[in-house]
Design a protein that fits this description.
By secondary structure, the chain is of the alpha+beta class. It has five domains: 88 residues, no CATH class; 170 residues, Rossmann fold; 102 residues, Elongation Factor Tu (Ef-tu), domain 3 (Beta Barrel); 103 residues, Translation initiation factor IF- 2, domain 3 (Rossmann fold, 3-Layer(aba) Sandwich); 97 residues, Translation factors (Elongation Factor Tu (Ef-tu), domain 3), CATH 2.40.30.10. The chain is built from 16 helices and 33 strands.
Length: 616
């Protein structure tokens, strides 16, 4: 009777395959026998269960390997691609990336779309030091008056504009992005340089290169963006353009007339002199760069600013980088998705579509998009939602991976809790960036809640329970919130200029810090006699070697190099007379409190304590 062949189960088969291979005549040499790794493709973020399903391993095996690597996770926990790769090595898996991102354009797609490329307008950002005339220059170009309406004379938001000029008989468009100039806006300026094709660096002829000027040069160079220099205020009597050119040469920005490659234009935002030549130089530079885009593609763009608009909801200013955005398009911006319900140009006129390099205002998002996030258009709502969900999952993993365990020492650190509300996302990011720079080893700023929109009742309630202060930038305080704020005496402040907000927070932090105590030596003496030391008091004879000893002075007694006692002078006597002070070169009797420690020849140092307010 033939023996029935045993059929191995998957588990048994796996056990057999995992056994060590021993050297035999047939399989020599054994050390070269290596089990091939199983290739498993995973997305940027994958759940434990999904990884188990993809690899054919059990959930228990995956979790066990995670625990070995210090990661506590359950079956539904998400892990990132890097973590999957680390545990995959030990599990005999080759983890490879799965191309799931709908927001990525494949090489084949780029090649196929080259035939659709057309010339596009240059995107130009005006940058420079505060009060060097950036907004005034744009005012002159656009023949408008934005500067007069700005708080504190400083541009508070990024704004985008498009102008049309005549160049060699053709109408040409230039898109301008106006970035704030105060140092508080370094984060916004960095975004400005990153999204621009050309940076126009404006420098006042009477002021020269300043701190923010240097920062702009560094930002533009890091972003590999060409710089055109506009020397402004050349109409002023103390203008010194030669000095500015010399300063610029220190940063490798050498004018063409000096044999360099940097375009330098001399202009006056007040009179308009030199502005036409500046615009021509911008067009010339853009032509050399051969800027192009595909207007037939699905749109991509970048968020310049976002806020809540009464009636329109979440409203964002978007710069279209490639493709064409149409009214009704399905879009995702980071973790936010929606459909383009309102599409307007930069002067708030309704439009049906917008091509590359066009700044537009878009409404239709489920929530407020983040400043600096990329907009991507999709074929339908489902694809947009999937892209937004994937972005959110990746963000969760990044936050989880970057989480920090607080030690007991850190819990004792003084913390200023802040609830922050702003009118637009751009300003919110700039404020957060500035507050993060207020650093001190003994105190820190912690933003426990942030967002765009009015200060609400829930903000006031949270401030009460967390002892937080409320900071509002260009937003109102709801009536219900005001009642709680007044009743509970919560600290709530409203601002229109960012650097005033930052200065006030700095002042609050400095008040929370204990003052620095310094001991200022006022007199030095030597103990030469022991007159009395009993339960009623101590009197020692001293010779004053420098300075002055005064009744009531603080003093310390030094034996060798060691301080043995400190206290206060209770009395001073010269011979039989009570005196208020004794000066250098004289001998005196010094009355000290009971229990004072000393020996003959010890030093007596009189001092006063000065308190200095700590600065941040």
């Amino acid at each position: 009777m033939a023996q029935k062949k045993h059929k191995f189960s998957k588990k048994e088969q796996k056990a057999i395959e995992s056994r060590p291979v021993f050297a035999t005549a047939e399989n020599q040499p054994a050390e070269k026998v290596e089990k091939k790794k199983i290739k498993v493709s995973v997305p940027e973020v994958v759940s434990v269960k999904d990884l188990a399903d993809r690899s054919g391993l059990s959930v228990t095996e995956i979790i066990s390997e995670l625990i070995k690597n210090g990661v506590m996770a359950n079956i539904n926990e998400n892990i990132d691609f890097e973590t999957a790769g680390i545990i995959g090595d030990d599990l005999g898996l080759e983890i490879v990336s799965e191309e799931i991102a709908n927001d990525e354009i494949t090489h084949e797609k780029i090649v196929s779309e080259k035939k659709n490329l057309v010339s596009r307008p240059p995107v130009v950002t005006i940058m420079g030091h505060v009060d060097h005339g950036k907004t005034s220059l744009l005012d002159k170009i656009r023949e408008s008056h934005v500067a007069a309406g700005e708080s504190g004379g400083i541009t508070q938001h990024i704004s985008a504009y498009q102008i049309e000029i005549e160049n060699e008989g053709k109408k040409r468009l230039i898109t301008f992005i106006d970035t704030p100039g105060h140092s508080a806006f370094s984060a916004m300026r960095s975004h400005g340089a990153a999204i621009a094709d050309i940076v126009v660096l404006i420098i006042a002829a009477d002021d020269g290169v300043m701190p923010q000027t240097k920062e702009v040069i560094e930002s533009a160079k890091l972003a590999n963006v060409p710089i055109i220099v506009a020397i402004n205020k050349t109409d002023l009597p103390n203008a010194d353009t030669m000095k500015v050119r010399q300063q610029l040469s220190e940063y490798e920005l050498i004018g063409e007339e000096w044999g360099g490659k940097t375009i330098i234009a001399e202009v006056s935002a007040k009179t308009g002199a030199g502005i036409e030549q500046l615009l021509e130089m911008i067009i010339l530079q853009s032509d050399l760069m051969e800027l192009s885009a595909d207007p037939k593609a699905l749109a991509t763009g970048i968020v310049i600013e976002s806020h809540i608009h009464r009636g329109a909801g979440a409203l964002s200013t978007i710069l279209i980088e490639n493709g064409t955005l149409n009214l009704g398009d399905s879009v995702a911006v980071g973790a936010v998705f929606g459909r383009v319900r309102i599409l307007e140009n930069f002067i708030s006129q309704p439009i049906k579509s917008a091509g590359p390099s066009t700044p537009v205002r878009v409404a239709g998002f489920k929530s407020v998009p983040e400043f600096g996030e990329r907009l991507i258009a999709f074929e339908n709502d489902k694809e947009a939602k999937i892209a937004a969900d994937r972005f959110l999952e990746r963000a969760k993993v990044r936050r989880f991976a970057g989480a920090k365990t607080i030690t007991k020492g850190e819990e004792k650190e003084k913390v200023l809790n802040i609830i922050l509300r702003s009118d637009v996302v751009g300003s919110l990011e700039a404020i957060k960036k500035s507050l993060s720079e207020l650093k001190h080893p003994d105190i820190k700023v912690k933003i426990i809640s942030e967002g765009v929109g009015a200060i609400s009742e829930s903000d006031a309630t949270m401030a009460r329970s967390t002892s937080a202060i409320i900071l509002g930038f260009r937003v109102a305080i709801a009536i219900s919130a005001k009642k709680i704020i007044e009743k509970e005496k919560i600290s709530a402040f409203e601002y229109k200029v960012i650097y005033e907000l930052v200065d006030d927070v700095r002042a609050i932090l400095e008040k929370m810090l204990p003052p620095i105590r310094s001991e200022i030596e006022t007199g030095l003496a030597k103990i030469i006699a022991d007159f009395r030391n009993d339960k009623k008091g101590v009197v020692v004879g001293v010779r004053v070697e420098s300075g002055v000893l005064k009744k009531g002075d603080l003093l310390k007694i030094i034996s060798g190099d060691v301080e043995v006692w400190r206290g206060q002078i209770e009395s001073l006597r010269r011979e039989k007379d009570q005196v208020s002070e004794v000066s250098s070169g004289t001998e005196a009797g010094v009355g000290l409190p009971v229990g004072a420690k000393y020996t003959i020849s010890d030093k007596v140092v009189a001092f006063r304590v000065e308190e200095t307010k700590q600065k941040i």
